[in-house]
Amino acid sequence: MEITTAMVKExxxxxxxGVLDCRKALEAHAGDLExxxxxxxxxxxxxxxxxxxxxASEGLIEAYVHPxxxxxxxxxxxxxTDFVARTDDFRNLAHELALHIAFAAPGxxxxxxxxxxxxxxxxxxxxxxxxxxxxxxNIVDRIVEGKLEKFYKQACIMEQPFxxxxxxxxxxxxxDAIAKLGENIVLRRFARYELGEDL
Length: 199
Known about the structure:
Layout: H1 5-15, H2 19-28, H3 33-51, E1 58-65, E2 71-79, H4 82-85, H5 88-104, H6 116-132, H7 137-155, E3 161-162, E4 165-169, H8 170-181, E5 186-194
Antiparallel strand pairs: 1-2, 2-5, 3-4
Helix pairs in contact: 1-2, 1-3, 2-3, 3-8, 5-8, 6-7
């Protein structure tokens, strides 16, 4: 099957991959767009895994104040080079993350940052609830683990669904940017302020 420029363009728009990579993917899959998309995603995820070990010490600090001045966010987003930090794609990613934090109010970057005392407190609460509901002792631990997973998805930004596309987590959003920009990207830290909120 002949691979046309229009086919390459469509695949490139869907994946953000390079022209040559798109052409090769389409040739390898006889012009099947869906298979080519899946192939490029796998390839991109492998590249993301390789890049995640690299040092990311450049980047930018993004500040966002929500209209009405009641919520503000400040975050540090890192990449490997100053060149990438100045690109529109990287700046847009930082802005999207700030908007997400303003809306979703995560407490932690990743589950590894949740203090052990918070985890133990959550587990104790879930265990008490399950027992008060009359759940059998032998399934209480599974219930507690299930609720703890939900807690992580609500409290840790990397596991939260992106507010503009709930089919993607924030980790997926960052992975897509890593695949597109070719550098490791790390959300180093963030702070969210809400008017009248106790710290």
